[in-house]
Amino acid sequence: MASDKAQYVVALIAEFAEYYGITTTQAAKYLSQYKVLELFDRQYGYLHTQSFASNVRDLSAYFQRMGGSL
Question: Of 9, 13, 28, 42, which residue is the least packed, with the fewest Cβ within 10 Å?
Fold first, then answer.
């Protein structure tokens, strides 16, 4: 299961990076800054049933509420 979570997070980071036109390293740092990686770990059961596009949109809304600049 931990491997599934890790693979999912890596794929979602890549999708997030592509959506915003940033590197995967920049995306991972941004997600880490807002403690989203911990959220993914806790909510994996739900998140992996949703599309990457849906999750990226949800993340965008979350970041805006938290004062993010992307």
Answer: 42
Q: What is the pLDDT along the chain (70 residues), one digit of tens a residue?
A: 578 888 988 999 999 999 999 999 999 998 888 888 888 888 888 988 999 999 999 888 888 888 887 7
**Is this model's pTM higher than 0.85 or not?**
no
Sign of CA dihedral 34, 38, 42, 46: positive
Let me know how long the chain is: 70
